[in-house]
Amino acid sequence: VLQRPSSISRYSGVKAYGGPYYSMTADGILVELRYPYGDILAVPNECYLLPTDDMSIIDSIILFYHEKGGHTNSRHTRWRIGRSFRWPHMRRDIERVCRRCVRCQFVAAYRRSRSIKRHLDTSARLPWQVISIDLLGPLKADVFRMQYVLVAICHLSRFVVLSALKDASTRSVVDALHDIWCLWGRPVVFRADNGPAFRGQFKRQMSSEGIRTQSVSRYSPWSNGVCERVMSTVKGFISGLNKSDTRRWSRFIPVVARRLNTKPLPEGKSPFEILFGRPYPEELETRLSAEEDSSQIDLTPDNEAARNLQLQQKLVVSE
């Protein structure tokens, strides 16, 4: 059905047609209208339909999302691609490309225990209210003399913040937490193990700032499983870097955080989307939106500002 739902269907809230709806963009591109949770009263998401006669284009798109997303598995890659593109046998093609990824095969580790499911924590009522923290290291020092990674994760949204440290002293941890508070706000409760950096001096400092601390057993990783799962991901990412990048692994810590914060939770949303209220903008999505916006600008002779804006957007797209 090459049309949008009729006004009668919109007011009744029932689709007159059981299958998907399609539409044409201003550039003549066929798109599929994806309504959130099947609600046609909501604004649909337009997914570009890709032809399957040339699979090289589809494979390049899959590889682009797979590599930019941090070499996540096929389910996460499909979730990211499905917001912008659709084609027949989409699941099969994405699994095929992801299984052939050389880097994924190199860094993949066999786990005897089941992975910790990243469900939302109902004990936290607000984002960034209850935070779990832990230290990863010591790692091999890079050129910036970084040896540790401070992991902070929100219990409600599962949003992760990583910070590279030179040492594991309480002073370094507190300074890194103050930098995190300036960006993301002050939490109410900290949950950490009884490591040397989280003992007396750390607890006294947090108590003086009005933050409660909850201690878990240092030798029971399952008691702080959300941080342990993140630390295993950071280790796997660093081990997969090439030799030149390994010398400055601390510069790639934000890439790991983006990878973790854009992975979908079992609830269907990513930590980024829960915290910010919008999906993470993928690179191809921003390119397509820039092209659509530039084509809709009215370039009249007296509209010099609009003309300059279009030239800037074309320059960004070409780069």
From TrEMBL:
GO molecular function: nucleic acid binding
Taxonomic superkingdom: Eukaryota
All residue ranges annotated as the Integrase catalytic domain in the record: 123-279
Example of a GO biological process term: DNA integration
Listed name of the protein: Integrase catalytic domain-containing protein
